[in-house]
Task: inverse folding
């Protein structure tokens, strides 16, 4: 039996679990490069689940950073960071970002959310670091077999829909406690982003009560991943 964790991925048929050194050291090796609060030769202080609180604290301490920055800092897929900001420990200060997962049977309805935005930015990232940024005034996805297609006079985008494992809606919490939509992230089973859709102008206010009337939302980590704690704020 092989047991991985939330960072485990499959490459060329092999199951790979990163050792997590990037979270302990500022450089590859050396006791003088140990991050503050960590000890060489000891387990990470974050433990198995504490990395979520660690990620939220990093975002609180770096208000000019976004989830992509956090993903690079912790060397984690963006799906892991979305999971982290979807939870909040009792008594913990609010994180600058809020994420909620859409139940898998309603993944298709996530596109309807984006269709309400007058101007949209689509982001597609390749594993080699290439990034495609697509600007559009409306969303006209159509299905053909297993493919989700967006065809305009300027570009063609083809997404293999069966690769979308879950969809996250990310919002940023303002000083007035309002949550403004930052984007929709379409994530594969390895927690990597397949593509994302973001409103370009007049970011809508995120109201979970209103959204729940339109679409089924996941209210606990256990419903998303099946094996972790259930303490997300609703």
Result:
């Amino acid at each position: 039996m092989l047991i991985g964790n939330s960072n485990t991925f499959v490459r060329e048929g092999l199951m790979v679990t990163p050792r997590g050194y990037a979270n302990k050291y500022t450089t590859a090796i050396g006791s003088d490069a140990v991050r503050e609060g960590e000890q060489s030769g000891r387990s990470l202080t974050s433990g198995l689940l504490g990395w979520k609180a660690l990620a939220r604290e990093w975002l609180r301490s770096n208000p000019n950073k976004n989830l992509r920055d956090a993903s690079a800092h912790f060397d984690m897929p963006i799906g892991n960071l979305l999971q982290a900001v979807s939870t909040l420990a009792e008594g913990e200060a609010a994180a600058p970002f809020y994420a909620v997962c859409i139940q898998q049977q309603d993944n298709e309805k996530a596109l309807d959310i984006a269709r309400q935005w007058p101007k949209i930015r689509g982001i597609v990232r390749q594993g080699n670091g290439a990034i495609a940024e697509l600007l559009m005034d409306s969303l006209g996805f159509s299905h053909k077999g297993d493919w989700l297609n967006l065809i305009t006079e300027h570009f063609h985008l083809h997404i293999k829909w069966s690769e979308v494992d879950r969809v996250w809606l990310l919002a940023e919490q303002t000083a007035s406690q309002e949550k403004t939509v930052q984007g929709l992230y379409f994530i594969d089973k390895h927690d990597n982003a397949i593509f994302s859709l973001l409103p370009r102008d007049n970011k809508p206010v995120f109201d979970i009560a209103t959204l729940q009337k339109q679409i089924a939302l996941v209210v606990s980590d256990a419903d998303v991943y099946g094996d972790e704690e259930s303490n997300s704020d609703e």
Residues 51-61 form the longest helix (11 residues). The chain has six helices and eleven strands. Residues 221-234 have pLDDT under 50 and may be disordered. The helical segments are 51-61, 67-74, 78-85, 107-115, 208-212, 221-225.
